[in-house]
Amino acid sequence: MFFLKPKPITLHKISKVVMNFKRLLFLLVLGFTVLGGSVCANGQAENNTPPKESTEAAKVEGGKKEEGGKLDIAKVIFGHISDSHEWHLFTLNHPGGEPTHVSMPLPVVIYHSTKGLMIFSSSKIAEGESYEGVHLQKDMMKEHIVSDDGAKLYDFSITKNVLSMLVGVTILLVVLTKASKKYAGIGAMKAPSGMQNFIELIIIFLRDEVAVPYLGKEYKKYMPLLLTTFFFIWINNLLGLLPGGANFTGNIAVTSCLALISFVVILAKSRKHFWSHLLNPPGVPGAIKPMLVLIEVASLFIKPMALMIRLFANMMAGHIVILALISMIFIFAALNTFVGAGFVPVSLAFTIFIFFLELLVGAIQAFIFTNLTAVFIGQSIEEGHGEHESHDSHEAHAH
Amino acid sequence: MDLLTPELGLFFWTLLAFLAVFFILKKFAWQPILSSLGEREKGIADSIATAERVKNEMSQLKNENEKLLMQAREERTNMLKEAKETRDKIVNEAKDIAKAEANKIIVDAQQQIQQQKMAALTEVKNEIGNLAVEVAGRILRKQLNASEGQDAYMKMLAEDIKLN
User: Fold this and answer.
1) Domain boundaries, chain A
2) Which positions in chain A touch B6 (Cβ < 8 Å)?
């Protein structure tokens, strides 16, 4: 129970502190948002024409204003953090006219239950019109492509998130294969340089601090998985922080996919020892045993669920916080132009701070995901009489 | 809640991309990098071990050298000492031999001198004898020319025999 390894603790602690701090900030910002939103609504009710500066600011920020001039922060934020069939760049507001949305159309790939495979540009359905019997239905938090006649269809579109991921994946492939070629070029015995040095630092860290402590002698077999997981999550976390970037790792489909891969590996590589401890815990009185087995079996599924939700919630929360902080400018500007302008430095200071925090969180979350995957795999491949208690301590820190 | 329902499309593409990246990187990045790192670490460990071994060997060699030097010095001293002794011995022996030889030569010479002396003396004695006999002969011949002389001589001879 008290068998703790020093390094992960510190990192868990750091991340915990960071997360707690972020929660606090998030609550604060949420409070501001709600307050600002109600104030804004009142302001709108009294004065139907928004202040001029606010309109201009909205132009720069892009799409903060609805057609009616009503500010809907929640919609803006969820529009930014949810997936989209087009890559929205900015919106031009014309005084008195319809706003122009400037966005990059993306390919829509759907498998229609009656019409089969359909591929077309998302610009065909961008404004909600129907194209070949399908149209885009925009909800509060998500948009779906639905068939006009209600028939079932499967959406495999290259959405904003998918494209962002492909960019991230391309960067990974180029950078990492280039770094690996350098080893062949200068030979293994030469000191690493440049990007190779940076990559090597991370690889050695993950090997010595994650793989070797948790996986023991078999660590080599799992290094590719751990490294790929770390770099995949990290690069996408970072890309998500770019202005206009997609909230890829803050999407439950992505984290569920990554967690599922971990779960499959955990199950596929599990050994007899793991199952015997799970289904027949030694040294437990008979009466408590069924209860404990129930808890253990539940924990088997809770582990990947925790992986999934941790990454999703952290990344999404980070995006929401940054968007909310920026939105505060417009909330206050809607109230009064000068208050809005006066709030710009405060909001920017907060945003910059949170942005740096998110840079840190992006790496920490990637590390935690990788670390816990290693811990869980380590538990499932454990052989013979180990310290069974240590599992719980790792988990306790993970949650 | 809508936000918590995973979309099939994104899930599918993520899975596909992750697996593709995993297999590509495994073959073209992780394995070469990890094996290079292992190789380098092994190389460094080997180098350190070799350096340590060489250092030990060097110190051992140094010790051996010093020991050899000491031995050589000792040997030199011994050799010098022995050489001196040998020299003295040879010189002494030579001296002894020379002395003995000289003595022998001296003795030989003395003997020879003695022999020569004896020979010379004998010769002189013989000569003197011969001279005396000749003189006596001559005297006798002169004396025996007369008969009384002969009688007297006979008498004398007879007296000599008697005396004997």
Assistant:
1) 107-155, 160-398
2) 251-253, 256-257
